[in-house]
């Protein structure tokens, strides 16, 4: 979540200014992500006791009460800090805005909905995709002025956010078979949705047609090629998992897909803020790969 939140801000502001809002929205994004992870285990503790008894909460290594309190406190912190980001100093270019507060509340509700009642339903992939849409919009929101007669969020930003959401929805649909493998309509359907998400990410900036936007690369040719280079390994790995649905192949495809969110976000940071900030976002790949060797990311 740190990558797409940061990339969204950099895309709209063309850099990390105003720095107070940039830092605040990044902290809010981290708080939301940690809250989602903790509450996910809190809601699943009984199932984990039966199926994955070595997990910290299920094994009793972490106090259930403390985990629950930490999860809800982090969720509240995400809402508060995210809301504040719209009221921090932004100069005449970025007036105070209530938009981050509205998106923060919506994101908190969707995180709880996914972790709780929706996870075991067919709506789970859509809920996870919605979380990713809202996290991207949260990153952009401190730089979006609320002006009467104009849309709250530009079409191109909605398109990009939907691209990330559809991409994650596809991966989540495929991941429903990661533990058992075997033929399932979830796999080809998830692959198709993932490809659609990549297409949206490649071409959504063109929705800014007519608006005055200072891109660092052409959104018509160079940028789609850049997204295509990042997305190609994901699409190929996922297709292989569809053809040979062994659990290991599905898990590898999902892992690569999740880690690829960072270079996809870096491409958007490059589009809006240039190569230096793109490298800053891309550098998040290093800790992500290290953590992926220690923790389950699928």
TrEMBL record:
Specify the protein name. Answer: Prenyltransferase
State the Pfam families in the record.
Answer: UbiA
Membrane topology of this protein: Multi-pass membrane protein
Keyword line: Cell membrane, Membrane, Transferase, Transmembrane, Transmembrane helix
Q: What would be an example GO MF term here?
A: transferase activity, transferring alkyl or aryl (other than methyl) groups
The answer on whether this UniProt entry bears the keyword Chloroplast reads: no
Identify the Gene3D superfamilies for this entry. Answer: UbiA prenyltransferase
Q: Where in the cell is it found?
A: Membrane
